[in-house]
Fold this protein.
Amino acid sequence: AARSYFAANLPSQLKGAIEFFDLAKFNSAASLQDNILFGKIATGQAGGSTKIGELLRQILDELQLRDMVLKVGLDFQVGTGGSRLSPPDRQKLALARALIKRPALLILDQTTAVLDPQAQDKLLESVLQTRKGRAVVWVLNRADLAHRFDQVLVMERGRLVDHGPYAQLASRDGGPLNLLLNAGKKSA
């Protein structure tokens, strides 16, 4: 409440001098670690730094970001909107932030689209393994990745055109999923 009050009552000449944390964007005044965590680790919590460090390492390993983070360091300034990070690293970082929150329902929209196919496969598998037993809704950029999900919804122009288990949908000759799978093979 104090932060909100402070931000709302900041004199107009200081509005651009302070950058507040916003869950929807990177904070250019903060380090990579602070951007991943949405803030700083509270020093008043016994063992908090250790627990957060372990969780951070686990997520970075699962998303294959550890090498990049070790290279630049957790104190690396990410730049405005993460501009100093590559698009794949920016995407992976956003995913890491979502996974750290451990939501009951994780919704991802073409999260792996900026990655090469092999990296897409690894990341998808890692996230699904991490989320085992918890709900994941994933808008895929490749129809062939749908086989990893219990239920598949096929959308066309914002409308649901088919749904069901992958095997059932893929076996339908001329069905929407089958058409998408075949279109992917022709363009590959």
Remarks:
- The CA atoms of residues 150 and 165 lie 6 Å apart.
- The first strand starts at residue 105 and ends at 109.
- Helices lie at 2-8, 32-37, 48-62, 66-72, 87-100, 117-130, 166-171, 176-187.
